[in-house]
Amino acid sequence: MKYAEIKALATDEIVARIQEEKATMTKLKFAHAVSSIENPTRIYKSRKTIARLSTELTQRQAQAKAASESNS
In three state form, how does the secondary structure of the chain look? Predict the structure, then answer.
């Protein structure tokens, strides 16, 4: 998932995608531990996607906090 696609998502969609990606990564890790999966780079890509989503979510939360503090 590209960063531009992530920026286009709503905050609640980002939270949902993080949960989905974490579940996917857990399944991939388990499948890889049992027997090697066809494309092990999917684990790496999933981890990077979670990091990108988490970064955007953190930035949005910081912006919301800064906006609420400036209004007070």
Answer: CCHHHHHHCCHHHHHHHHHHHHHHHHHHHHHHHHCCCCCCHHHHHHHHHHHHHHHHHHHHHHHHHHHHHHHC
**Which ranges of the chain have pLDDT less than 70?**
72
CB 70 within 8 A of CB 19: no
User: How much is the pTM?
Assistant: 0.89
Tokens 């998502």, residue located: 9
- C-beta separation of 37 from 31 below 8 A: yes
